[in-house]
Design a protein that fits this description.
- By secondary structure, the chain is mostly beta strands.
- 8% of the residues lie in helices and 28% in strands.
- A 7-stranded mixed beta barrel has the order 12-19-16-17-14-13-20. It has a 6-stranded antiparallel sheet with strand order 7-6-9-4-1-11, with no helix packed on it. Strands 2-3-10-5-8 form a 5-stranded antiparallel sheet, covered by helices on one side.
- The longest helix is centred in the first third of the chain and has 11 residues.
- It is elongated and about 60 Å long.
- The model has no long low-confidence stretch (mean pLDDT 95).
- InterPro entries: CT_A_B (IPR003778), Cyclophilin-like_dom_sf (IPR029000), PxpC (IPR052708).
- Keywords: ATP-binding, Hydrolase, Nucleotide-binding.
């Protein structure tokens, strides 16, 4: 039994293994998946001394608790949360040394949604289609963490950063999403598109890694007919029959039959990963490049 491993003491509400995903397989019906807040995950890896493509843990709201079998360096980023080692407060947003057998406790998010836990050497579960990411839609990759599970760790390749705390953007009080109209904006009335880009929406509690769902004004379609299934991209804003926009995130389906009114700029999607239920959402139309 290798000592390069983590035992899961508390799995939390939803904790998954994620890396930068498995792009290039949409033709097989496989989403990209991967971390929802890329900058936060990259920072965690950098602080822990890992390469940017090392697999990390992505927690959801309630954090997790882990016991390493050997001494490791960890870093927690993303949603602000209390961090403790054997019950003693430890740093968030900075490298932390955890001895073998000690318990790292990543607490519930005080704001935001998802925290990222990088461990020196990276989470070394078996890759599937070139990625270690958990894909909740297709079921590829490792299952979400459960209490008592054991995760293998890789061999550390670099030195951890030497900082007291790394600056990070705060989770949004208002989520502003810049969108490029189309490809199916003509399936909606002009009044509906004006409402989409001027009225207030909020993040729905039904949101998940597949999509950020919203509550707010229903968008009226100009065409009642059915749209044949077509390819979907990360950030697509699909409008299902209830008329409330859904922003597709990392585990989104690769095809869909509801019209896409717009597509969110990639730079705005990390904010969507940290927008808690009830957060105001504003869609801002920008010109096609």
């Amino acid at each position: 039994m290798t000592d390069r491993a983590l035992a899961v003491v508390r799995a939390g509400a939803l904790t998954t293994v994620q890396d930068r995903g498995r792009p290039g397989h949409a033709h097989l019906g496989v989403p990209r998946s991967g971390v929802l807040d890329g900058p936060a995950a990259a920072l965690a890896n950098r602080l822990a001394g890992n390469p940017p493509d090392a697999a990390v843990l992505e927690t959801t709201l309630s954090g997790c608790a882990l016991r390493p079998r050997s001494a490791v360096t960890v870093a927690v980023t993303g949603a602000p949360c209390p961090v403790a080692v054997d019950g003693r407060p430890a740093a968030w947003g900075a490298p932390v040394r955890v001895r073998a057998g000690s318990v790292l406790d990543v607490g519930a998010a005080t704001s935001g949604v998802r925290a990222y836990v990088a461990v020196s050497g990276g989470i070394a579960v078996e890759p599937v289609l070139g990625s270690r990411s958990t894909d909740l839609l297709s079921g590829l990759g490792p299952a979400p963490l459960t209490d008592g599970a054991v995760l293998p760790l890789g061999v550390p390749r670099g030195r951890h950063a030497h900082v007291d705390v790394a600056p990070q953007p705060a989770p949004p009080d208002e989520l502003v999403l810049r969108v490029t109209p189309g490809p199916r904006d003509d399936w909606f009335t002009p009044e509906a598109f004006r409402a989409f880009t001027s009225r207030a929406y909020r993040v729905s509690p039904a949101s998940n890694r597949i999509g950020l769902r919203t509550t707010g004004p229903a968008l009226e379609r100009a065409r009642p007919d059915e749209l044949p299934s077509e390819g979907m991209v990360l950030g697509a804003v699909q409008v299902p029959p209830d008329g409330r926009p859904v922003v597709f995130l990392a585990d989104h389906p690769t095809t869909g039959g509801y019209p896409v009114i717009a597509v969110v700029r990639p730079a705005d999607l990390p904010g969507a990963a940290q927008a808690a239920p009830g957060t105001p959402v504003r869609f801002v139309a920008v010109r096609r490049r």
